[in-house]
Amino acid sequence: MIPDLRYLVHPIPFVEVAQMATVRIVLTVLALGLMLSACQSRTLVKSEIDNRFNTPTDNLVTGGPPSKKELSQLKEAGITKIIDPRSPDEERAFDERAEAEKLGLEYVSLPVAGSAGVTRENARELDQLLQDGENVFLHCASGNRVGALLAIRAHEIQEKDLDQSLEFGRAAGLGSLEEKVRSVLSE
């Protein structure tokens, strides 16, 4: 009896050589699907987000600085990136960058020095950081600068009218900087 050599040339003994190309294609498609699903942003679980934070969009949480516990909760809720527009000289309760990185979160510093830093340029820089569609926690000391920059971004980049832009900014934390935003947008 002569052995059937078709089963000796490939690692899956019950699949004939002619079927191996199909098996390879199917396995490749499955692997690509798994990789793509791992890369997609997870939907935020809003019930896991502290009510002192704002959620102006489905993938954006804004507010003041988090505690270590809140940072961990934000991670559990699906946040993958932290954007911190506080300037380096502002007081911090802990090393937020180190804590975020320990949790596997991307941490980005975008220093905005108080009301003087509420500019079109900083709004454009923030827009670039938000382009990837990740779930982001964007915070400053109170949420006011964050709301201001988002209002400018809404008007200048997303081309919303002034009222819509200000409303979006307020939903994100805009307060006492509203007049500054109006001034920047009227320039």
In short:
The chain contains 7 helices and 5 strands, in the order αββαβαβαβααα.
Report on this structure.
This protein has helices at residues 17-39, 68-77, 96-102, 120-129, 144-156, 162-172, 178-186, and strands at 54-57, 60-63, 81-84, 106-109, 136-139. The radius of gyration is 24 Å and the shape is globular. The protein has 187 residues and is an alpha/beta fold. The chain has a five-stranded mixed beta sheet, with helices on both faces. Helix content is 44%, strand content 11%. It contains seven helices and five strands.
Features:
alpha/beta; 5 strands
What string, H for helix and E for strand, traces the elements in order? HEEHEHEHEHHH
On the 0-100 scale, what is the average pLDDT? 86
Which stretches of 5+ consecutive residues score pLDDT under 50?
Answer: 37-41
Q: How is the main sheet built?
A: 5 strands, mixed
Q: Could you tell me the strand content as a percent range?
A: 5-15%
Radius of gyration, taken over Cα atoms and rounded to an integer in Å: 24 Å
Strand order of the largest sheet: 1-2-5-3-4
Instruction: Tell me, briefly, the overall form.
Output: globular
Tell me the helix content. Answer: 40-55%
Alpha-beta classification: alpha/beta
Query: What separation lies between the terminal Cα atoms?
Result: 91 Å
- Care to count the β-strands? 5
Number of helices: 7
